[in-house]
Write a structure and sequence with these properties.
Elements lengths: L6 H7 L18 H10 L7 H6 L10 E4 L12 E3 L5 H7 L9 E9 L12 E9 L4 H15 L4 E5 L2 E5 L16 E7 L9 E9 L2 E9 L13 H13 L1
Antiparallel strand pairs: 1-3, 2-5, 3-4, 4-9, 5-6, 7-8, 8-9
Helix pairs in contact: 1-5, 2-6
């Protein structure tokens, strides 16, 4: 498949473990008008560093969450993240709250909260990393293409190499889809975990896109003691972020 394929077609093709595609609305609590507004009004061009920083969610933008700057210790350099399968570095980076491809500008936040429907040991707060990335030319198309390649190559699991430590990870194929993903043009999601009995946190990753911008949302469930259905995707955070992005 050529990297010159349109964004919409790329999104539809990337089915499978990542299930990237355009979805119909289902469930949710936000009005159809608000969701339509967010999709229709999202910026279509490449954002500047100042614009993407100003568009980031902040305190009070996400219900039941505290939003703040991402701490330096929680940030990763590309050189610190590797995998036994090169294609799987894409999944690893997104799960760690990093952008992929070659964006011209990025911005990050961390949202801490207790999402509705989530079940964790001791009532621990759930962390969601939020990363916005804006691209020039076909940059977003190429990032979407790489996501699709990773969704196929990484189904059997891989070894994450992070800051000198190696950890076996897997991306389960059968997952409950996120609901009401009707606020942007492209959507993707996957789960990355160490598997049953592992002490590796489960990460549920949601990717949304509009225009030349992608949003990467990675939710970490420390000590989760329930199945995937009790660990919702970060749709609430993504919706709030895209609504603010649309508001300009």
């Amino acid at each position: 498949m050529s990297r010159n394929t349109t964004v919409r077609r790329s999104a539809r093709i990337m089915a499978g473990a990542m299930a990237l595609g355009v979805l119909a609305a289902c469930g949710g609590t936000e009005s159809d008008g608000d969701a339509a507004m967010a999709s229709a009004s999202a910026p279509t061009g490449t954002l500047t560093a100042e614009e993407i920083e100003a568009a980031m969610v902040d305190g009070g933008d996400v219900p039941d969450h505290q939003v703040g700057a991402r701490e330096k210790a929680d940030r990763y350099e590309e050189s610190e993240v590797g995998a036994t399968q090169p294609e799987c570095v894409v999944q690893a980076r997104m799960a760690l709250g990093m952008s992929i491809g070659d964006p011209v500008a990025t911005a990050q936040r961390t949202a801490m909260g207790n999402p509705r429907g989530a079940k964790t040991v001791g009532g621990d707060l759930v962390k969601t990393t939020v990363t916005l990335a804006t691209y020039k030319g076909k940059g977003k198309d190429e990032a979407l293409y790489d996501m699709g390649t990773a969704s196929t190559a990484c189904r059997q699991g891989f070894i994450l190499k992070l800051r000198g430590k190696q950890t076996p990870l897997q991306s389960p194929q059968q997952q409950i889809d996120p609901e009401r993903l009707d606020f942007a043009e492209e959507f993707g999601w996957y789960v990355l975990t160490g598997g049953p009995g592992s002490d590796v946190p489960t990460r549920k990753v949601l990717i949304v896109g509009s225009g030349h911008t992608l949003g990467f949302f990675s939710r970490t469930y420390p000590g989760a003691d329930a199945g995937p259905e009790m660990m919702p995707f970060p749709v609430d955070v993504a919706r709030a972020q895209w609504k603010k992005l649309a508001a300009g």
